[in-house]
Design brief:
The chain is mainly α and 554 residues long. Helix content is 83%, strand content 0%.
Length: 554
């Protein structure tokens, strides 16, 4: 358990925060990315088995999941991140016993909020269907996951408070693996073996969230039992100078947790605004067919969103890592360390998000066909490419809001998000009326742009972000990313022509071949450039030497 070795018995050893951030980010990013990839790849066979009902089924799935996501965040209530932050706070003071008591009281809270929110979602489903009664059975199936996941998420927060990211990342992957296995198995049996109802198949696909939650919880329990002796040793060697009453522990958890609900649900809140306004606002453009409206909704809110959240998860994984590290520095009142961590966080975000977003936009055409087929392919490709750029704003908000929580500015972050939400609401109708399916994406971009600007401005005023250093490295990241984007786009066009002589390019297999070539070559180009110029060294440290050796780059 090397992650714990940074804290000595007196609690005086200060860990290398940049090294911890990169190490923690690597684990959380790996777990999040693999989980997101699994959560996207399943759509290929799932869509084939749904056949002509694919877009309708995916739209229904998205409607249910957006509502479920909000209830889940309310059930979790930000308690896992609050626990991670407070456990890290007490661990920095060598008061591990207090952190354990926090976890036990948080466990009770998570179980209660899970039960309440699951009940509200199950029995109140008809109130949230937005006029589509087919959503009700989907919400009923999702309520079981709301019952289980809060306790699982709480346990992840406990491990993160110790800078132990591996248990969280691995349990996240196991959870997704079990979920996808159940989704595909149930969809195949219902749609292909029994030739059943597609609404029933969607309901079973969403029930898979509960199956995954059980698997993820069992994984965390195994990690806890495996390391229980080490945890007990840390508690025995604590200073034990602080006695915190149970009432105060509950107050600390709730004070830290409640703002996490709003900030953690930030992206989901914007998606719910889209879900409850898009259909009515689009009718003002002359489109009245419910099938067509569902297809358009599926394009931007479900299909594109599922893919861009793979790259957004890069930054959200980073955000989860930043919170306990910033909390420790804030507890020590080390403003220099806070400033350095802010700079590192921004650079690490840019280093992974900018090339990912530009790369996805460049290969949007084969990527969309691989996952969603040729239905409305030109419009769907344009929506996916535009969504890739929107992802930068979503990812940046995940990072900046987490940073604000790490420096105990939860209420201020909520206020800034509220301003961004107002901007989104004001722009929603005119954007949809004049830009159609792109309208919600434009309104979302401006909403998060305002929220991010307000947060970054305050952080700079309070802790002095090193913008000159960031700007210099950002120029390099942007230049290499743009070059990679151009190469990827050229390769997509070239490979499409070449493969077009041997196979149907606009097919799953044809698109897969094009993607492998384009992403492989363009991705390697970016990696080569950042390693060859030593730009990567300034962002992620000396670990790049091993990578340079493996790739034979001098």
């Amino acid at each position: 358990m090397t992650e714990m070795s940074n804290h000595n018995e007196g609690g005086n050893t200060v860990p290398d925060s940049k090294d911890q951030m990169v190490k923690g980010s690597a684990w959380m990013t790996a777990g999040s990315i693999f989980s997101r990839i699994l959560g996207a790849i399943y759509i290929i066979p799932w869509g084939i088995w749904f056949g002509s009902y694919f877009f309708q089924g995916n739209a229904l799935y998205g409607k249910g999941y957006n509502i479920y996501s909000f209830f889940l965040i309310a059930a979790i209530a930000g308690i896992p991140s609050a626990i991670a932050k407070q456990v890290a706070h007490y661990n920095a003071m060598n008061e591990y016993g207090v952190g354990f008591r926090l976890y036990k009281h948080g466990f009770v809270l998570a179980a209660i909020t899970g039960l309440i929110c699951a009940g509200l979602l199950f029995f109140g489903a008809p109130l949230f269907d937005g006029g589509d009664p087919r959503v009700v059975p989907v919400l009923h199936s999702l309520a079981w996951a709301v019952l289980i996941i809060p306790v699982m998420s709480l346990s992840r927060g406990f491990f993160q408070g110790y800078q132990q990211m591996a248990p969280s990342a691995i349990s996240q992957f196991v959870e997704q693996l079990a979920r996808v296995a159940y989704m595909l198995g149930s969809a195949f049996i219902i749609m292909r073996v029994l030739h059943g109802n597609w609404i029933t198949a969607v309901s079973q696909s969403t029930f898979a969230a509960a199956v995954g939650a059980i698997a993820g919880t069992l994984t965390l329990a195994w990690y806890y039992l495996k390391n229980r002796s080490t945890f007990n040793q840390l508690v025995l060697n604590s200073n034990n100078e602080i006695v915190v009453p149970a009432k105060q522990l509950y107050q600390e958890i709730l004070q830290q947790a409640l703002p996490f609900i709003v900030l953690g649900a930030g992206i989901t809140i914007f998606q719910l605004i889209d879900q409850y306004t898009f259909f009515n606002f689009m009718r003002s453009t002359g489109i009245t067919s419910m099938v067509m409206l569902n297809n358009l909704f599926a394009m931007f809110s479900v299909n594109a969103n599922k893919l861009i959240m793979i790259i957004v998860s890069l930054s959200s994984a980073l955000a989860i890592t930043v919170v306990p590290l910033l909390s420790e520095a804030y507890t020590r009142n080390d403003r220099v360390d806070i400033s350095h961590q802010l700079t590192n966080a921004v650079l690490l975000f840019e280093f992974v998000m900018i090339p990912s977003a530009l790369g996805m936009a460049a290969v949007a055409h084969p990527l969309n066909i691989l996952f969603y087929g040729t239905s409305h392919k030109e419009l769907a490709t344009a929506v996916l490419a535009f969504s890739a750029f929107v992802a930068i704003m979503l990812g940046l908000f995940s990072v900046t809001s987490a940073i604000m929580q790490g420096v105990s500015q939860n209420k201020r972050a909520v206020r800034y998000f509220a301003v961004g939400t107002i901007v989104k609401l004001v722009l929603q109708w005119p954007c949809i009326h004049y830009l159609g399916v792109f309208g919600p994406l434009v309104a979302t971009t401006f909403g998060f742009l305002v929220a991010n600007y307000l947060i970054i401005r305050w952080l700079n005023q309070s802790f002095s972000i090193d913008f000159p250093s960031i700007a210099k490295k950002t120029n390099g990241i942007l230049a290499f990313s743009l070059l990679m984007c151009v190469v990827a786009n050229l390769l997509v066009n070239l490979m499409s022509r070449i493969f077009g002589m041997f196979m149907v390019v606009d097919s799953h297999w044809g698109s897969l071949f094009v993607l492998i070539f384009a992403v492989g070559i363009a991705g390697y180009l970016y990696v080569y450039l950042v390693l060859r110029t030593r730009l990567a060294d300034t962002v992620i440290g000396d670990r790049t030497n091993r990578l340079r050796t493996m790739l034979h780059i001098k």
